[in-house]
């Protein structure tokens, strides 16, 4: 949760001090920097973080992944990180700030994945889903003062004062070992996400999010796992959603059903989803993340 408690002049001075820190690399790498947060864009928090990064790495290629993660929703942040990281460069720096524990004893870390990306984020489980496909192979706790804003560091805006400076220095090519001591990747916090429960009658899964403003209900069920239930394209699947019957045709895309009709389909990230063609499923049905969905096996 950001707080604008550092005067503008102080922020600029801090950024200048960081950019001129002894031993800092002057090489401009043009590295891609992805930025994901729950800040929204109502105020200046996103712009301030971007300014800090660019003060250190002016040639960085900044990419805003999203700043509309539901406030404090670490699981949603983990889902968006896992869904987007594959599309960023293999050497990208990805800064994620969904940080309900800001200012507490939770660790601020840099995690390196097998693919080579550097994640700059709080150690609160944000990398749980990405770790399943691109495992963290090394990690360090951010403790080195020269890598941060400095003495005027806020206890409520670590996006500006810790994560953005670190992302900027990594983007310009600084040696990441200087950020702080190494930590065991196995010690990093992982979310306890219940996997779909597959049984002889079918699968019980949960909605893990909604697709942008459209209200499509994203299920924690990979399309490959759904295929094991035996349903074929065009079949009417007798689902239940929150205990209520919701028969839905299994189709490939929205226009395969009439306007306003429900559909079950594999989304662009390979998860099964429920939607209303040209409508908002979550709002119309009054459901959202966490709701249980039962899908039976095909007779």
Structural summary, described in words:
This protein is an alpha+beta fold. It folds into 2 domains: 180 residues, Rossmann fold (3-Layer(aba) Sandwich); 100 residues, Bacterial fluorinating enzyme like (Elongation Factor Tu (Ef-tu), domain 3, Beta Barrel). It contains 7 helices and 15 strands. Strands 8, 9, 10, 11, 12, 13, 14 and 15 form an 8-stranded antiparallel beta sheet that branches. A hairpin with a 4-residue loop joins strand 4 and strand 5. Helix 2 packs parallel to helix 5. The longest helix has 14 residues. The chain is elongated, with a radius of gyration of 22 Å. It starts with 7 loop residues before the first helix and ends with a strand. The N terminus is likely disordered.
